[in-house]
Every structure is written in C-alpha cells, then in structure tokens.
Recover the amino acids of this structure.
C-alpha cells in the first residue's frame, strides 16, 4: 500500500509514569515529505467517493456543467472559423466589386453570443457546485476525524505526538481537497483535449494527422522532464522545511541561544540552509523555466506545419483559409491541458498518500468503548473498590499486578511510591482511560465498564500536574466542566479554592482572556483555576495527580488552605510528593512495581517501620527534620 | 516602503537588468507572431507562391524559438532575483532576531515572528518576481499590441481594446476584496488549529471532564464557518473569471462583427482581422494578471512593513564600539543600586547585592517578585535602566556580549531542547566536546542513568521528532548543558522544580562539588533547596526585603520566616495567618506599583 510507517505495528507501548521509554508500537506513520505511493489507490478512492455520495446531486450537476463548459470552449474557435468563412466571402465580393452584406455574418454572431452566454452560466455553475461538493466532503471528513479523535483512548496520545496528529487533520485533509478539485479539472483537461482532437479531424483529417505528430513528442518530453524534475521539486520542499524548522527552533530557543553564545554558529548554520534553499530553488527554476520554451517551440512547429501544409492546400484552393486559422487557434489551446495533466501526476500521488494516512487514522480502533447496554451512572456516594485488577500496556509487561483496594465514600487516599510504581496508571484506570486487563473496578457497586463513559466522567474530576487551560476567558475555563454554570457558581468555585482574589485583580476580572495555554498567568494561578474547574461540578470523586508539584509556595499554600474544604464530602484520591498532603490522608497506599506494599494511616505505617517509613526517612528527611529546628539536619 | 523593497531588489543589479532585457525580448517576439500569421492569411488569399509560404512558416518558427529562449531567461532570471531577495531578507531577519534582547522576544509570539520570516518574505519574493518584473511585461504587451492595432485600424482597435480597462479594473477590485476574505479564512484556519491543538494537547482534561461533545460542537462551529468562507471565495473568484471571459469573448465578437463591416467597406483585409483576433489572445492573460499584480503589490507593502519592523527594531542591549574582551572572571558579582523597568512597569527597584567568588546565593520570593530578572541582568539579557553591575570590578557594559556570556552559565526555568541528539543538546553551548565531557556533566546532573538505559543512549534524538523527556529530565539536561560550559558564574533558575524529591536530593549532593570554586545563584521555591546557601536574598516586589543566612532569616520573623512556616508547618491556623499576611503584603505592593 504505502511504504514507511502506516498503521501496521502491533499493540502500542507507552508508559504513563516514566519518561518516554517504550513509546513504540502503533503509531501514525511519519509524515516524511519524500514519501509517495502509487497514483491510484482503490481503497482510498472508494472511501472518498462515499463522502461524495451525500452530495450526489451537486456532484452530478458539477460534472454536467463541466461537460457543457468544455464543449463551449472547444466550440469557440469553430465559430470563429465560420465567421472568417463569411468574412472571406464578403472580402471576395468586395474585391469583385459586388454588393456585399453582412447578413450571414449576423447569424454566426448570434451563435457566438449564445455560446458565450452558455459558457458564462455553465462555468459559474460548474465551479461553484464543485466548490460546494469539495467543501462538503472536507467538512464531513474533518468532523469525522475530530469525532474519532475524541473517542480514541489516551494511550493513542501517548504514542503519537500532537504535531503528527495535527498534520493528519490539516495537511492531509487539505491534500485531499486539492485532490477532489484536481480530479474534476483533470477530467476537464482530458475532455477538452479529446474535443480538440475531434474538432481537428472534423476540420481536415490530413492536416489533423500532420499536426498531431507533435503530440507524442510533447508527451515524451513532458514525461522525461517530469522524471528529472520530480527529485528537484522534492528537494525544494525539503529545503524550505529545513529553513523553517531552523528558524522556528532559533526563535523559540532564542534565550538558550543567547545564553550559550551560539549566535554566530547558528547564523552560519542558518546561512548554510538558507543558501541550500536558494540553490535548490534555482536548480528547480532552471528546470521549470526550460519547459516553457520547449512547449513554445513545439507549438511553433505545429503552427508552422499548419501554415505550410494548410497554406499549400489553400493556395491550390482545396482548403479554406478559415480552416488554417481554426487550426492555429486549436493548437494554441492544445498544450495547456497536456501540461496540466503531466504536472498533476505528483499531486495525485501525494493525495493518495494523504488518503491512506487519513483513513488509517479513522480506522484506528477505539479501545475503550461504551457497552451497547451501558447505563448512566446515577449520582454516587463515592465508594470505590478495586478487585484484583491487573493491567499492561504491552503484553507481558504488567504495570499493575493484582491490586485489591476498598475506598469508603468521603475518604482521602494518598498513593505513594516511586516513579513507575503505577500510581498514575491506577488513576487513569479509575477514569477508564484504559480498561483493566483483569479484575474489575466498581464505583458504588457499578462496574465502571457497565456505565457510559460520559456519566462516569461527570462524577469524577481530575487535577493534573501540568495545569492545562484552553484559550478563552477565565470564567469559561472554570465552567469547562459545567458549561451551563451561572456566574455565581463560577465565582463560588473560585472562592472555594482561593482563586477569587487574583482573578478580581486581573484587568477584566472573570472575563480576562487567557493567552495561549494561559501564559499570562503563573503556573500556580493556572493550577488554582484548574482546581476551580474540577470543583464547579461538585464531583463525588476527586483525583489530584501531583497537582501541587510544580507550583510556587504561595499558590501552594493557598491550595493547602482550601484542601480541607475541597476534600470535604467527597472521595479524594491524591498522588503527591508533599509530605503534608500525604500525612493528613485517611489512608496511605504505598505502591511498588504495580503492587500494594503497605496501606494504613501515617502513624500506622511509621510504626510498622516498613517501606513507607524508609521512603519517608530518605526523601522527606530534610524537610521533616527542618520542621523541628531543635534537631540537627543530617547532611548526605 | 515600495522604494525600500525596490532597494532590496536593486542590490542585485546585474540580475535585474538581465531579467528586464530577457523580458523585453520575449515580449517583442511575442508581439511579432500574430502579425506573421495575419500576413500568411492575406498571402494565401492573395494566391501567393508556395515558397513564400515556406519562408513565412520558417519565420514563425524562428520568432517563436527566439521568444522561447528569451522567455527562459526571463523566468529563470526573475526567479533568481526574487530568490536572492528572499535569501537576503531571511538572513537579515534571522540575524536580527538573534541579536534582539529578551525584552523584544518576551513581547512577541513565536508564530508571529515565524510568519514574518516565511509568509511575508514569500509575499515580497512574489512581488519582486511576479510584480516588479511582470508589470513591465504587461505594459509592454498591452501597449505594444495596442500600438500595432491602432496602426492597422484605429476604429477596430478601440473596440477590441475597450475591454482592457474594464478587466484590469475589475480584477484589481476583486482581488483586493478577495484578499480580505482570504485573511478571514486564514484567521479561521488558525482558530481551527487552536481548537484542535488544544483539544489534543489537553486530551486528558477533555476526557476527565467528559467534555467531548462540547469540544465537537466548538470545532463544528469553526469548520462550518471555514467551509462557508471557502465557498464564498470561490463564488467571487468564479464570478470574476467568468465575467472576464465574457468580456473577452464579447471583444472578440465585436471585432468580428465590426471587422466584417470594415471589410465590406474595404478598409480591412481578412488577414488583418485574423491578426486582431490573435492579438486579443495575447493580451488577455496579462490584462487579467494585472489584478493579481495589484494584489501582490498591496500585500508586499504590508509584508515589507512587518519585515522591516523586525529588521529596524532597536535592541536595548548594545555592545559598545570599544568593548573589550572579558577574561575568565573569579566570580565577584556586584549590583550597585540596579533598577529595571519593563516599559513603564518597574520590575526591580534599587537592588544592591554582592556575591564573593565561590559563594552560593539563593534568591527567594513570590512569583513576579523579580528573582529571574536579577539573574538575567548578569549576562545582559536585559539592560538595567539604572545602576551598575560589575564582574570582578568590570562594568558588564564595557565588555563584549560574547565574552561576558561565556562567563555566566544559566540553567533556565523553561528548558528548551533542540531537535538533535541528547549529546548534541548537552554540548549545545560547547560544540565539539568529547563524549567523556558530556557524560561527566550528565552524571553530575543525574541524567546519565536514564540516558544510558535508552536503546540509542546519547545518540537518542530529542525535540520535535524525537522522544519526549519529562519535565524533570529536561531540567537535568539543562543543568548538564550548563555544567559542561564550566562557567565561573553558575545560575540555576528554578531548575529543580519538576525533579522529584529523591532525585533532587542526589542532584544537590552532586552539584555541591560543581559549585566549588564558582559563584552560584540559585532560584528555587523549595526551601530545602535554598537552606544551605551562603546568602539568601528575599525579594519582594522588585526590591530586596531580607538578606542573610538561613539561621539569621529564620530569627528575623520576616517574609522568609513566613514562607518557611508555610512550607514546613502545614497546620491550618498558621497557614491562615501567614496567607493573610502575604496577601496583604502583595496587595500593598500592587497598590504601590
């Protein structure tokens, strides 16, 4: 089908907790510029046609009007020929001193006007209905892709970078749009070419045959040229993307560049790629400029042939002068379609490759699905049980190895453990980002696989380590979890988490627009907003995944103060590094390599003097001891 | 503006002149062809010799061939000129962006700068090669053809050429109005990208809140708008091109009709009429293109403005003409009453500090208190508006930027990785470092174990097309990058915030050996990180509020003590009190500013 990448790979890897290891497996193909497949891919074309089907009427209209338009274009030189016939007659009459009229010419002129009018209308209809069909197809493709992306499980996003998925949704879709237009315009080219050939034969078989001898030569030259030029144009595309990547990197990384004194080295390197781009372009333009004179000369040869052979016959009186004029007019219209057709070859290939990629994306199976008889989870109290759950991203590498855990409604539970112990995975399983491979998770007795994902999500809320905000106003961001929330509700949520103070100090208060990802706020402020966002829907279950790891002490203290109220009346699951958060939990669950090592309250576990006590002593010693200034802080 | 763009093109006078010569040649020969064809028609009608016919055919071939050669030169040379201009502009923008200080970059978005260096440069190139040169060709063809036609039969010429101003005017109007819609389309496309990008990057948030439907609706609104605008564009485009075809066809019709009457009146030969028809064909394309050229022109003007805005931007950080090279310093850093303002907004007020060689200085304070600004002033990323900063007694404004910056190593808060291997990223500030050096730095930064476990080790590709490193790993890489420079002054700007407590502990131990013999500035919000510093500076609203060692500051019961209590004694009454105090303070500060 296509080479390189594709959707062939096995089930994906992707570790959630640690780094970027093992992120192989099912990934989208790389979008290498240089990769091109065949010109025609049956599956892609069939699938694409199914998108055209809903716009059947318009599509047929577009094709019909295209036919009419092509016909009028081909007809025009013929009508001119008729006119010239009349004129030549008139001229002869004048020369012979006879009474000349333009009566017959009037009839030809009416024909001309009608042809002109028909062409005007049909061309307009053809182009507009084509645009509407292709935009319609594009619209439904985009909807389909976006909708599918909403249903793919988060593990898909672990394996595929956002940039790569974006390029599917944008560049590849655009390629397909080009393709649709191209198919129709190529069809038009073929038709007008055919029409011209027919017209030439109708005018004069012998002269047509002579003229058409140029065609094979032209096509041959075009094909050879195409072969040579292909690589060159590819290099141009690569060169520009290298230049842009270099620019982008240097602008985003300018602070590092300046601090490491790399300006000159980078300038030299940029000059190099910039120069490479220049050279690639000049090379390409030497080639593309060469095509024009070739075509011109071939056209001239064809015209020359017409003049010589046609002229001889005309002198002998066996051919009308008008036929010669019509031939010349046709020959001039001849080369554009041929040139278009050969030029569009690579465009077709590119579109096919894009099609393969897009439909590959649409065919990526959804891993976590609602059952057919899934019910809505009714309002819950928040009792959670994990019964012997096991989970792996990659077969044979178990990340969760048989965990049993009961959480009472209203409890605060802290997960503790080193990177890779499985804390984040457990939380993801609770949210049903993935399905457990064995065992089951229930909430108030409901297996989470038996309820709709929507209703499950509505009763849980999550605050992640990296606060992610959307562009829009502050109040829109808080209300993200409850789009119909009133302003009072938004304010109440902000007050609960202690965000109200800083929000009211912003220039437009709650209506302040956030820049890209909330960059006009500090990380701490962003996190306060994501807390407010989590609370606005008053979820029964709250999950905090390292929610305070990256923020400044001030914002953290604000959150700390709100904690009691935030946790009040709901089941809370907390992953944290901070001692204070962990210590106050109703239950601490110590995880290691996907298993529960110990569980209990802080004092229980300290008394047990097991792994938790050890972890506590090593990692938190510094802070813990500093807390009691009378004791000396041990170094090392 | 137009003159400046012209100036950019005239930097390559030989290319320009050659392109113009080729262009004039190709236009002239193009104008000869219809005349020859017209002659052929008349000669045939006049019953001429076959030999004359052959000669004519040969002439047509020759003229066309010459025209081809000139056309080749024209296309190639104008592309060459255009590409040279684009090349110059890209280099100018790149060079300038590299030298502009942080304050410039802080206020601008990468995307905007990129579009200046790409789309705007393209607009200029298009104009130079399509507009500046093509315009002359259009004028030549139109006026040449018009002249020839008028000489033949002025009445018919009037009829035939009447369409020229109409079409030129229409296409200019339409292409200008299309440009506005196109801008709207671009904006909408940008919106679509944002919605999609945010949706994908924030996929966990979307899922956790079950907001898929809401997102789909948001997306739907945008793409509906997008496809409607596209349809609108093509409606206008098609209406225009159909109209132009109609006008042109009408001109042809008019010529045939009135030409017929002129033939009846004996004022025109059929061959001349044929000539008219062919000339109309020749000028149709160029006339239609005039709209495009006007559009190109207006785009180039605004693009040029945006480009020269960058190229002309003054950088607040300037090297003195007689700047000397700063030798490797011992690390005595001194701020004397330094103030810094961002526009009108004061960020630092009257900061004085002194760090002895080898000391560790910790900076502490709430977000926005100016910690990062203090350390960014040392390598002159920003220019102090008042006061003086010296290294080993030398004013930093008296030395070259390069020599100054090579004395200061900064591990920044936001770690930027370049698309390169891990080894290249570590050695970014010191290309050509040996693998041993890279590994040593990486070991100290506690990164080595992770890297060594990767299948490709130090050759693993990171950045855009490579693996993703976690926040903590990136920070450790930044530290390794800085250690490798072996700078006498080391700055760690919040560079351990995303590193977990265990690793941070190891890192701190390893760094202790590195810090020996260097002056180190540490910015951190974890007190555990700053406790061991020789000097702790607490910043509050741009000034130094407290200064001293950990023990001294804890005794002072000031801001440091409060922050300390916040982090380490999380029982609620204390927190409440402390927050109230801090909030009151920050409000006071804001009222002051």
């Amino acid at each position: 089908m296509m080479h390189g990448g594709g959707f062939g790979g096995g089930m994906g890897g992707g570790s959630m907790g640690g780094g970027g290891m093992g992120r192989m497996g099912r990934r989208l193909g790389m979008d290498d510029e240089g990769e091109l497949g065949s010109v025609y891919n049956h599956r892609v074309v069939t699938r694409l046609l199914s998108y055209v089907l809903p716009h059947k009427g318009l599509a047929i209209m577009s094709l019909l009007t295209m036919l009419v338009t092509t016909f009028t274009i081909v007809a025009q030189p013929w009508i001119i020929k008729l006119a010239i016939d009349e004129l030549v007659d008139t001229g002869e009459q004048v020369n012979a001193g006879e009474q000349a009229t333009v009566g017959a010419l009037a009839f030809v002129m009416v024909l001309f006007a009608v042809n002109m009018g028909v062409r005007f209308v049909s061309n307009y209809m053809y182009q507009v209905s084509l645009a509407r069909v292709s935009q319609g197809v594009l619209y439904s493709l985009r909807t389909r892709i976006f909708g599918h992306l909403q249903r793919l499980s988060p593990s898909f996003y672990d394996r595929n970078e956002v940039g790569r998925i974006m390029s599917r949704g944008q560049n590849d879709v655009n390629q397909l749009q080009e393709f649709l237009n191209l198919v129709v315009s190529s069809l038009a080219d073929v038709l007008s070419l055919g029409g011209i050939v027919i017209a030439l034969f109708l005018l004069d078989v012998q002269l047509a045959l002579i003229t058409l001898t140029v065609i094979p030569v032209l096509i041959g030259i075009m094909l050879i040229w195409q072969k040579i030029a292909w690589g060159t144009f590819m290099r141009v595309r690569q060169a520009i993307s290298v230049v842009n990547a270099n620019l982008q990197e240097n602008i985003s990384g300018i602070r590092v560049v300046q601090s490491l004194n790399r300006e000159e080295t980078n300038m030299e390197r940029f000059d190099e790629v910039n120069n490479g781009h220049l050279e690639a372009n000049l090379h390409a333009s030497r080639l593309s400029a060469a095509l024009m004179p070739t075509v011109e000369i071939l056209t001239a040869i064809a015209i020359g042939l017409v003049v010589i052979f046609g002229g001889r016959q005309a002198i002998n009186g066996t051919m009308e002068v008008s036929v010669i004029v019509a031939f010349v007019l046709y020959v001039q219209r001849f080369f554009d379609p041929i040139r278009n057709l050969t030029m569009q070859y690579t465009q077709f290939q590119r579109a096919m490759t894009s099609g393969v990629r897009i439909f590959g994306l649409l065919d990526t199976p959804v891993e976590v699905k609602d059952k057919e008889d899934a019910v809505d989870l009714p309002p819950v109290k928040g009792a959670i049980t994990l019964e012997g759950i096991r989970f792996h991203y990659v077969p044979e590498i178990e990340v969760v190895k048989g965990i049993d855990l009961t959480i009472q409604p209203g409890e605060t539970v802290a997960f503790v453990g080193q990177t890779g112990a499985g804390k984040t995975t457990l939380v993801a399983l609770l949210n049903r980002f993935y399905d457990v491979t064995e065992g089951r998770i229930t909430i108030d007795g409901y297996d989470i696989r038996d309820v709709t994902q929507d209703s499950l999500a509505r009763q849980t809320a999550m605050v992640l380590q990296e606060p992610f905000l959307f562009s829009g106003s502050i109040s829109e961001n808080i209300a993200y979890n409850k789009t119909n929330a009133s302003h009072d509700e938004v304010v109440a949520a902000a007050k609960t988490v202690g965000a109200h103070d800083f929000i009211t100090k912003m220039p437009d208060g709650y209506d302040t627009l956030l820049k890209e990802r909330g960059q006009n706020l500090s990380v701490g402020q962003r996190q306060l907003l994501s807390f407010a966002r989590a609370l606005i829907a008053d979820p029964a279950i709250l999950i905090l995944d390292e929610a305070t790891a990256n923020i400044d002490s001030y914002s953290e203290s604000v959150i700390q103060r709100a904690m009691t109220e935030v946790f009040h009346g709901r089941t809370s699951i907390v992953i944290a590094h901070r001692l204070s958060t962990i210590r106050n939990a109703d239950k601490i669950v110590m995880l290691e390599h996907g298993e529960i090592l110990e569980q209990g309250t802080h004092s229980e576990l300290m008394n047990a003097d097991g792994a938790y006590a050890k972890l506590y002593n090593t990692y938190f010693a510094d802070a813990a001891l500093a807390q009691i200034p009378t004791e000396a802080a041990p170094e090392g | 503006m137009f003159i400046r763009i012209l100036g950019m093109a005239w930097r390559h006078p030989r290319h320009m002149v050659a392109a113009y010569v080729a262009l004039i040649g190709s236009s002239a020969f193009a104008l000869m062809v219809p005349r020859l064809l017209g002659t052929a028609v008349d000669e045939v009608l006049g019953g001429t010799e076959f030999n004359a016919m052959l000669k004519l055919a040969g002439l047509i071939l020759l003229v066309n061939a010459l025209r081809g050669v000139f056309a080749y030169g024209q296309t190639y040379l104008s592309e060459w000129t255009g590409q040279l201009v684009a090349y110059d502009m890209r280099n100018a923008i790149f060079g300038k962006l590299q030298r502009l200080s942080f304050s410039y970059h802080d206020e601008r978005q990468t995307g905007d700068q990129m579009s200046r260096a790409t789309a705007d440069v393209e607009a200029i190139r298009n104009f130079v090669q399509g507009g500046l040169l093509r315009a002359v060709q259009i004028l030549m063809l139109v006026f040449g053809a018009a002249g020839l036609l008028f000489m033949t039969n002025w009445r018919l010429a009037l009829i035939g050429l009447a369409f020229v101003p109409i079409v030129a005017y229409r296409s200019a109007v339409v292409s200008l109005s299309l440009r506005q819609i196109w801008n709207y389309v671009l904006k909408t496309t940008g919106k679509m990208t944002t919605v999609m990008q945010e949706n994908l990057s924030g996929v966990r948030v979307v899922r956790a809140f079950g907001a898929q439907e809401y997102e789909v609706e948001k997306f739907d609104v945008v793409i509906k708008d997008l496809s409607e605008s596209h349809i609108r564009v093509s409606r206008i485009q098609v209406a225009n091109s159909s109209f132009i075809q109609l006008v042109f066809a009408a001109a042809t019709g008019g010529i045939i009709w009135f030409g017929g009457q002129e033939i009846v009146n004996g004022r025109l030969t059929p061959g001349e009429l044929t000539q008219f028809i062919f000339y109309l064909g020749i000028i149709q394309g160029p006339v239609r293109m005039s709209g495009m050229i006007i559009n190109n022109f207006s785009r180039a003007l605004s693009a040029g403005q945006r480009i020269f805005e960058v190229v002309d931007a003054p950088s607040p950080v300037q090297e003195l003409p007689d700047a000397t090279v700063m030798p490797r310093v011992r690390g005595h850093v001194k701020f004397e009453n330094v103030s810094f303002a961002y526009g009108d907004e004061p960020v630092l007020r009257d900061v004085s500090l002194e760090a002895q060689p080898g000391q560790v200085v910790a900076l502490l304070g709430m977000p926005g208190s100016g910690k990062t600004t203090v350390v960014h002033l040392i390598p002159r990323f920003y220019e102090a508006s008042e006061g003086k900063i010296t290294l080993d007694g030398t004013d930093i404004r008296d030395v070259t930027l390069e020599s100054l910056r090579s004395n200061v190593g900064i591990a920044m808060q936001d770690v930027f990785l370049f698309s390169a291997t891990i080894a290249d990223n570590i050695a970014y500030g010191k290309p050509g470092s040996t693998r041993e050096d890279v590994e040593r730095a990486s070991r100290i930064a506690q990164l080595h174990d992770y890297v060594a476990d990767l299948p490709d080790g130090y050759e693993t590709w990171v950045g855009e097309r490579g693996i993703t490193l976690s926040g903590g790993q990136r920070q450790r890489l930044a530290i390794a990058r800085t250690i490798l420079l072996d700078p006498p002054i080391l700055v760690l700007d919040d560079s351990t915030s995303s590193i977990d407590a265990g690793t941070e502990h190891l890192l701190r131990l390893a760094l202790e050996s590195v810090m020996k013999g260097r002056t180190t500035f540490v910015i951190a919000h974890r007190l555990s990180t700053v406790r061991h510093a020789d000097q702790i500076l607490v910043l509050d609203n741009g000034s130094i509020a407290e200064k001293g060692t950990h023990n001294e500051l804890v005794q002072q019961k000031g801001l440091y003590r409060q922050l300390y209590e916040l982090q380490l004694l999380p029982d609620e009454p204390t927190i409440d009190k402390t927050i109230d105090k801090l909030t009151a303070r920050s409000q006071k500060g804001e009222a002051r500013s």
About this structure: Confidence is low (pLDDT under 50) at residues 569-575, 589-593 of chain B. The radius of gyration of chain B is 36 Å.
